Structures are given as C-alpha cells and as structure tokens.
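Let us work through a complete example step by step.
Step 1: write down the sequence.
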Amino acid sequence: MPRPSTRAIQHSTDCPTTSQRLEPALESLLEDATASGETRGDISAKDLLHAVAHLCQPTPGEGPEYSQGMVALLSDGLRTSPELQES
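Step 2: predict the structure and record it as tokens.
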C-alpha cells in the first residue's frame, strides 16, 4: 500500500501536527513551573515552540537581534529574573 504524502498527512484531521501534540503538554508544564515560581510567566508554549523553530532556520526580514533574542529566551531557561524572585 502506498504511503500518503506529507501534505496529505498534515491536512488530515486524524493526524495532529507536532505543534498540536506538543503545545498542550508544554503549556501544562509551563503553567506548573510558573505557579511554583520557577519560570517566568510571560512565555507561552507557542512562544517556546516558535523560538526552537526559529533557531532551526533564518527568519526572512529579521536581523541578528531577533535571532539573539530567540537564543536568549532558550538559554535563559525560562527562569524568572532575580529581580522578580526578590519581590
């Protein structure tokens, strides 16, 4: 039996995309970590997934500052800043 094309799989309602599978689980993990004060609360699962995706390919029309921001987001580890932890 021939395998369906990638395009057919992506448009199938029976086969969720990677983002559709990962986003709810990652959102739950981020919510728990934010509630415990371990991570900053201004980043969504979608933001984090996009940051990883952006590191994998250049973004047309964006300069190096944008990529540096994406790397900073990931290297920060989503931790809260020391200033926020003191308040």
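Step 3: interpret the result. The chain has five helices and no strands.
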